[in-house]
Amino acid sequence: MLSYNKDINSVEEGLNHLQGKEYISESTVNFFRDITRAQYRIKSQLHGIDISCSLTEDEVKERMRKGKPLISWDNIPLKESHLKELFKEICKIMKRQENSGDEEIQRLIDAESGEEFDLNTLIKKLFFHDRAYFHSLSDDLGVSEELLLFVALHLAKPFFELVAEMLKGKVVDNLWLKNYCPVCGSEAQMAKLEREVGKRILYCLLCGSEWRFMRIKCPFCCNADHEHLRFIEEEGSPYRIDLCEQCRRYIKTLDERKAGDSKREIIPTVEDLATIYLDIVAKKEGYERSWFFPPSVDQLKTKRDSKTLH
């Protein structure tokens, strides 16, 4: 497990390399730097607490064979004081951003302080992928679903990352080739093709875990028809966009085989920001980013499938 200082320093170094790039503003880099620092401050407070997530090798294999992620809700070390501290800090950081929608953010702050919603419940509904809850809460509070999801995701990340670190190395590749995270059940944020043989690795949006996935398959709708899968790459760049013509979604990929001799650590948050220009390209092509809740989740997942996640 990485220490707090080494972990945050790696992220800081990655963000520093983005300063001055034409395709990303300094304010955007600083925004995510501030969010990351706030998350790691909370994460540093959590180190050393007793977390019940020990699984035997046989228990791990059994859960994976059944398609069940390793984390259960009871494993997450949520504490109200930590949640409130991080929530306030995230909202303060967002309000500092130009054109951030101060009134909407303030409505969210007031709603939380007025106990119109509960932060613990917000994260729980995110974990169980309850899209209806976010839609309903958005209407009730008069704030966008995008804002609620952004806050919920960044509020949850340090808690899920900590538990995921404890389970690192337990995932058995040949028992898990699914399109959701083997640790927490969430979708992928980024992908890479490994340097040696081009093995495809996905990175979780929520807990940061990584797992192996098929090369010729959409990580969202599981379309495996190569005639409806394609990619766009920039000449001389190790980055590309993998596109699915069936669900019209995409994932950004780092091809290590084209990254020269660099053996830098892959930090999904940094790589995501470093390739923000690819999001623009994909959207111009008519593809959408899968951001936690896919646009067609109800059509792509059966009720039975959704019940097996946790």
What is the compact description of this entry?
With 310 residues, this protein is an alpha/beta fold. Helices cover 45% and strands 11% of the residues.
Task: Describe the secondary structure blueprint for this structure.
Blueprint: H1 4-16, H2 26-46, H3 57-65, H4 80-96, H5 102-113, H6 119-127, H7 131-141, H8 145-166, E1 188-193, E2 200-204, E3 210-212, E4 229-233, E5 239-244, E6 249-255, H9 268-274, H10 276-284, E7 288-289, H11 297-300, H12 303-307
Parallel strand pairs: 1-6, 6-7
Antiparallel strand pairs: 1-2, 2-3, 4-5, 5-6
> What proportion of the residues is helical, as a percent range?
40-55%
Name the shape in a single word.
globular
Q: What is the percentage of strand-forming residues?
A: 5-15%
Estimate nothing, just give the exact number of structural domains.
2
Q: N- to C-terminal separation?
A: 25 Å
Total number of beta strands: 7
Tally of contiguous helical segments: 12
Low-confidence stretches: 294-308
Mean pLDDT over all positions: 88
Which structural class do the helices and strands define?
alpha/beta
Radius of gyration: 19 Å
Secondary-structure element order, N to C: HHHHHHHHEEEEEEHHEHH
Biggest sheet, in brief?
7 strands, mixed
